[in-house]
Amino acid sequence: MGGAATDDQSKQAPNPYPPPPIYSNSYPTHPPPPYQPYPPPYAFAAPPPAAYYSNPHNYPPVVYQESTSGHLTFAKFLLTTMTFLLVGACAMSFLTWLIFGSLTPDFSVKSLSVPSFNVSNSSLTAAWDVNITVKNSNEKLDVFFERLEAVIVYEDTVLGLADTDPFHLSPKGEVVFEMKASTNDLQQESFAESYRGLVEDRRRGRVSFAVRMAADATLRSGTMWRRQLRLRVFCEDLEVKFDGPTGPGKLEDGTQKECLIYV
């Protein structure tokens, strides 16, 4: 009986020590993190200065250049615009010529006389009478001359001035006007070098003058069409023959001298 009681007590007595765990704390389940003396870098941080990138395939480096397509596009646009404007101006001029024909009148020197001419190396006193013929070859346009001034020239030296009153030139019309020029109308200094050549020509009895004009004109066709013109007229190589050392002079031949016209 005593032995049975002892066995029952041994079976019912609790164990004073809990069972050991499956894994001991002395053996961690995960390895410890590596040693990091500095905080980890950012995900997009720049590499250190001494970083080296290998190029195992020896590809050529990529060079980025600034695009010039914008400048080329603007240049093409500017060139195209200028071309269209030039072509348009030529087309308008050609169309005007087809409709109206020639716009500029014709100028010619009908006669030139020099009633008095006294020249020395340092002075000049002279007068000129010039008759100019203006012809309108257009059959649709009227030409109104508001201003016309002329100069008498010897080797690019202006010797005398002249002007004329405004006048009207009808379609297919012709006008002859007279201009009187003299040295009295010109305020000029002594051109001794120019006068020396003039003295020599006068002694030979032949002097070549030029008449150059500037004119402001208005072309009209009815009441709808109008155009302003500024004309420059050059009548060159007008050779005057003098009678004797002190006599008057006039154009050597009686034919009219055609003039050049610039618009």
UniProtKB/TrEMBL annotation:
Transmembrane segments annotated in the record for this chain: 77-100
Family annotation (InterPro entries): LEA_2, NDR1-like
Alphabetical GO biological process terms: defense response to other organism
First-listed, main subcellular location of the protein, grouped into a coarse class: membrane
Domain Late embryogenesis abundant protein LEA-2 subgroup: 132-215
Cell compartments where the protein resides: Membrane
Recorded superkingdom: Eukaryota
Any one of the GO CC terms: plasma membrane
Record's keyword terms, sorted: Membrane, Transmembrane, Transmembrane helix
Record bears the keyword Membrane: yes
Positions of the UniProt region annotated as Disordered: 1-34
Membrane topology: Single-pass membrane protein
Listed PANTHER family: LATE EMBRYOGENESIS ABUNDANT (LEA) HYDROXYPROLINE-RICH GLYCOPROTEIN FAMILY (PTHR31234)
Protein name according to UniProt: Late embryogenesis abundant protein LEA-2 subgroup domain-containing protein
Species name: Rhododendron simsii
Organism lineage string: Eukaryota, Viridiplantae, Streptophyta, Embryophyta, Tracheophyta
